UniProtKB/TrEMBL annotation:
Belongs to the Nudix hydrolase family. It comes from the Bacteria. SUPFAM superfamilies: Nudix (SSF55811). This is Putative mutator mutT4 protein. Coiled coil: none annotated.
Length: 142
């Protein structure tokens, strides 16, 4: 059996950033369409609010140009796409709920079934052909 979307998120965050975490809440998903090897591909990326458990921030993954800790309120201005900015706003709202009302205030995770094969990432492109999530360092996105 494969892994759930939550397991994929935990694994990929660790692989791409060096950070170990646990999933607290679902933020939403973003659907991408891109062309690779002459064929059109649909990719769905599930995003989660995660708790830091440990690790050292690292950008050793070849697909990640730079990683950085960013204050949540600065995050929307550093994201290039409206759908990504909306997810950052949802994260900010959930963090406020978590701080004021505790973990019980977070919405339950939606059901997630394991996939037959592990979910992986690729150099998917937005419709305008710039890479989503590839700019994580100082300044605005591409």
């Amino acid at each position: 059996m494969g892994e759930t979307a939550e397991q994929t998120a935990i694994r990929e965050v660790a692989e791409e950033t060096g950070i170990r975490g646990s999933v607290l809440a679902a933020l939403g998903r973003i659907d991408y369409w891109f062309v690779t090897d002459g064929r059109r591909v649909h990719k769905t990326v599930h995003h989660y609010l995660m708790r830091f458990l440990g690790g050292e921030l690292s950008d050793e993954d070849l697909e990640v140009a730079e990683v950085a800790w960013v204050p949540i309120r600065e995050l929307p201005s550093r994201l290039a796409y409206a759908d990504e900015r909306r997810l950052a706003e949802v994260a900010d709202e959930l963090i406020d709920k978590l701080q004021s009302d505790g973990p019980a205030a977070l919405p339950p995770l939606p059901p997630s079934s394991p996939r037959r094969r592990p979910q992986t990432h690729s150099r998917a492109r937005h419709a305008d052909d710039s890479a989503p999530g590839q700019h994580n360092g100082p300044g605005p996105g591409p």
